[in-house]
Amino acid sequence: VGRTKRLFTTAQRRAAIVRDGQCTWNGCDQHASRCEVHHIRWWDRDKGGTSIGNAALLCKHHHTEVHRLNLSITRLEKPPGWTRRQHAKAELRQTASGGSASAMGIDVPVAGRTPLRYVFRNHRGQTINAPDGHKPDR
Question: Among its keywords, does the record have Nuclease (predicted)?
């Protein structure tokens, strides 16, 4: 969809749900069904596009906080245990379009492994929220 439409499509939302599974704010366990899809590179502020690569699930509370505090989000590189879905032994989940997550190029967790990690920073670059064990940039 890119910059032609601001809102994520149903298929993009479902792909984000498959990938993230819950609110991406570290320490929040709000289920994906209660989350909104946020533009990592904001639509207005950063001119970010509407794509699964620029999407992160946030519960309503944390989505509001990200905007209120003007936070930036960085998705960390894939932690150990992540692989393209076609190599995973876990059961395939289907997206709204009827295709597999791997067909859409989405990285998803192998069952029982660590999920994607996100770091939230303020306008000064200070880390506001990060996964346990994350070493801040120096």
Answer: yes
